[in-house]
Specification:
Helix content is about 60%, strand content about 10%. The protein is built from 7 helices and 3 strands; from the N terminus they run H-E-H-H-E-E-H-H-H-H. The longest helix is centred in the last third of the chain and has 29 residues. It has 2 domains: about 100 residues, Orthogonal Bundle (Arc Repressor Mutant, subunit A), CATH 1.10.10; about 60 residues. The protein has a 3-stranded antiparallel sheet with strand order 1-3-2. The chain starts with 7 loop residues before the first helix and ends in a 7-residue tail after the last helix. A hairpin with an 8-residue loop joins strand 2 and strand 3.
């Protein structure tokens, strides 16, 4: 199996053309409508560049679609079978990521409907396990338990520890809500 390390831009564009075939301008419209620029680094000028790279990698295919009425034909892009496989793995990795407040994780959340329930649960549980290890390691730092550290150093460790715990708690609450059916799978 070929392993792909999709960039955030590739993951976002591939997810949109996996939903349904789209042309570049339509991708721009969907990105704007969904507010994706708030948590992805996709510029309008890079959409066609990313599409060309996905086609070159065999993750997307392009086909000309005749215009409705007058006008030129449009190039429409869709995900290939390897593209769907790479996308699923990319989403799973994004959900499992444990960087606090990271764009990659938000991108994974935006793609939840493209994974099965078991895959979602496994990825999020992996995220929690990683947070638990990071919390344990950070909580053991002497700046949090031994006198003599400057207050600003202790504050930095305390802040980081609080962020990790909040992310971990959010992830666990999300899994619980998801399992209890409070969050519907697309």
């Amino acid at each position: 199996m070929v392993e792909y390390n999709l960039t955030n831009s590739e993951l976002a564009i591939l997810s949109l053309i996996a939903e349904r075939p789209r042309h570049g301008y339509e991708l721009e419209q969907v990105i704007e409508e969904r507010g994706m620029r708030a948590w992805t680094e996709i510029a309008f000028s890079s959409i066609y560049f990313v599409l060309a790279r996905l086609v070159k990698q065999g993750l997307a295919a392009a086909a000309l679609q005749p215009a409705a009425g007058r006008g030129p034909a449009k190039k429409v892009f869709s995900a290939t079978k390897p593209g769907h496989d790479a996308l699923r793995e990319g989403i799973r990795q994004a959900l499992a990521t444990s960087e606090p407040g990271g764009q990659r994780f938000l991108l994974g959340l935006s793609c939840l409907p493209l994974l099965g329930s078991a895959e979602i649960h496994t990825a999020l549980q992996e995220r929690i396990t990683t947070f638990d290890a990071k919390i344990k390691q950070l909580a053991a730092h002497p700046a949090l338990s031994q006198p003599g550290f400057p207050a600003h150093v202790s504050a930095m460790f305390n802040y980081s520890l609080s962020q990790l715990r909040a992310e971990r708690d959010w992830s666990q609450n999300f899994i619980n809500s998801y399992q209890e059916g409070e969050i519907q799978h697309g």
